[in-house]
Every structure is written in C-alpha cells, then in structure tokens.
Amino acid sequence: MKQTGFTTTQVHADRKCNSPQDGAVHTASTNSVLFEYKDAQSIVDVFQGKKAGHVYSRSSSGAVTALANQVNLLEKGVGAVCFATGMGALSSTFFSLFKSGDHLIVSQYLFGNTRSLMNTLADMGIQISFVDVTALQSIKEAYQPNTRAVFTETVANPVTQVADIQAIGRYCKERQILLLVDNTMTPPPVFNAQKAGASLIICSLTKYVGGHGNALGGAVIDTGQFDWRQFDNIKPAYQVDDVSQWGLTQIKKKGLRDMGATLAPEAAHKLAVGMETMGLRIPRSCENAKHLATFLDNHPKVDRVYYPGLADHPQHFIAREQMESGYGAILSVDLVNKIDPIAFLNQLELVICATHLGDNRTLALPVASTIFHESGEQERQKMGISDTMIRISVGIEDIDDIIADFAQALDAF
Ligand SMILES: *Cc1c(COP(=O)(O)O)cnc(C)c1O
User: Fold this and answer.
1) Residue among 181, 165, 358, 158 at smallest CA distance from 278
2) Can you give the pTM of this predicted structure?
3) Which pLDDT belongs to residue 379?
C-alpha cells in the first residue's frame, strides 16, 4: 500500500489488506468453526504449514486473520496475532515464550491484572524483578545473565508514570534481549512503539483500538526488530522458514492453539470497524484530556493531577519527546483533604462511574477500593496510588460539557 495519511490508511485497511469478496469493504465474519477440504491432501498441507488456510477456528479464521493484518499495519509490524482479550494476548505471550529459570525485568507500575499474572509466572518458577521503568539505571541494575526480556507499559495507569521506551529499547538491543511493550494506553497515532525499539507490542484492542466498549480483544505484533536466532526458547519445530516469524509462530501454536484464548469472528468485525476512526477519536480524547487536566490542576478543590501533558509531571519531557501526538487520555486526581471520592463520583451527571478506559464516553473510578483493592496497601504505596485517587478516562464528548460536569460536581463540596 502506498504511503497515505493515518486515517486514510485505517479507513481503507480492510479493503486493501484483505481483499474481501464481491467488492465488500468489510471482511465477512463467518461463524464456521470447521473448514471443508474437498481434496484431503490440502488439509494435510495446511496442517503442515505448506499451504495457507484455516482448519479449525480456535487457531485461525477469516475475520480474525483480517483484523490481525489491520493491527499489523497499524503498528507497522511484520506480523500479528489476535486474542480474545488483552489479558489473553499477555498471558499467551508470556506462557509461550518463557520457562522456569528465566528472568524478566518488569515495570513495577502495571495494570493490576497484569501484575497479578506476573505473580502467577513467579509461582511457576520464572524470576521477576519489578523495577522503576522511569529510571533506566534500575533496569541495568536488575539485569542478570538469565534475563530474557524487559516488559513495560507505555504510560502506567492510574498514576501515569511514563517509561523511557527509547532508552530501554537501546539497552535491550545492546543486551540482545526482548523488549515487550504494552501499548494499550497510547496506540498509534499517539505513540510508535516500533520506532522506540519494542520487539513485541502487546495491546488490548478492547480499549482505544475498538473504542466503543462493545467488544473485547487483544493482539501481539512483532515489530521485526528482534533477531529470534538470539532467543533460546524457540522450539525446533518453530525454527523454520522466515526467522522474523519464529516468535509469533510459537505464540500462535502454544498460546493461541494450545491455550485457546481465541477472538470470536463477530468481535473481530466490531473491532475492525472501531479501528477505522482511531485517527479521529484518539487525538480528540487526548486533546480533551489536556483541557480537563489543566482545568482540574487550577481548581482549588483538587490537590493533585497526574497527567503527562502537564509541565510539572515528573516525566513530562520524556512524554513530550517520545509521543508523536498528544499525551494519552488517562488522568488521575487527588481531591483536597476531606472530599470523599465516592460522594464526589455520585455527583457527576454526564461522566460514567465504570471500570474501563479508552472509551468514547468519559469514565471515572475510585482506584484504591476497586481495581487495586486486591494489591493491598503496601503495593499501592509502591505504585504511588493514594487511597482517595480517582482515575478518569477522558472520552470524545464536547469538552465544555465534560468540564461543566466536573465543575458542578466540585461545587457541591
Ligand atoms: C485493559 C488493559 C489490559 C487488559 O485488556 P482486556 O482486553 O481487558 O483483557 C491490559 N493492559 C492494559 C494496560 C490495560 O489497560
């Protein structure tokens, strides 16, 4: 496909990458689990990887493969695999690539469920060092001879710490280890993880990519920058043909086929439609977030605002340098002393109290008592999460309406 602008590419991606039948502009999503082969030799060839095709929809189907092609184009990779959820993508990747005795350097600022997944990996004999990814030095200090990868999110939720992915990418390249980046919070056009040096990009399609809160999904994209010949854990059966595909082949076989977190074709279609408008929705959410952050930062009833777009954010300069458009659309706030976050959230009329992010609608949530409740106080403190913190995922509504809702809710106290 010749070089076109972001939205042009997205709007025509399905048609161009996947050539749907009969001039359709969307790939058809069939619900067939099985695929008939008139000539039995053909199914043998497909099973043995000598011929392209689908055999059983747990492993692959048309609409899901079409979405994977579009996600791959979005992140400028050399291949992608889709999963039922972002957690499905994460767990499949980690369980497929690493084994007992391996060591991983992992961000200490992680999405709560991912943190819990890391604890499961540790129980199974994978060593994990949780480090402050805003300081490259802490990664260097954690390195061991059996370190296989560094894993971080781009902007952490809810405190919005920003990892210096470019610096981490250079370090991982030097050490010849994988850099796994969860780019859920800052998908293109906000951040180009490939350019920053990620080996694999893992992301929840449920959030900004789908955008409409109507379908779950996840994906892993190989950026083509890691030489899989340097990685001992690829099974001989998957060390075949194009080296750039070895990692994804193992993730597909072990993670998708054996573990089975398969995306449903219907969901794939919804996510593909959502993707078409990323270039309109995401910059709009980011712009709204910046305005709301500035408004809240200047409000006497707000004690602190956490948003990388504010000049006093500890990693503002890293964010400004590495993000290509905006600073994401997640921000968190601590209200002044005695305002109860529950009472405050109940005052909001437009903003929805819900545990989700990256939606068209503006959402808010008290974090310590919900998504980070299971972590306990000590872990929350390490992540910088206060007991009264409220996380806001800013949507695409008209900014005056969003600000008016927060203003009236704050006025009630
Ligand atoms: C939501 C989220 C996930 C998990 O995605 P699901 O699609 O909900 O399973 C993973 N990482 C981050 C950063 C997220 O925000």
Assistant:
1) 358
2) 0.96
3) 86
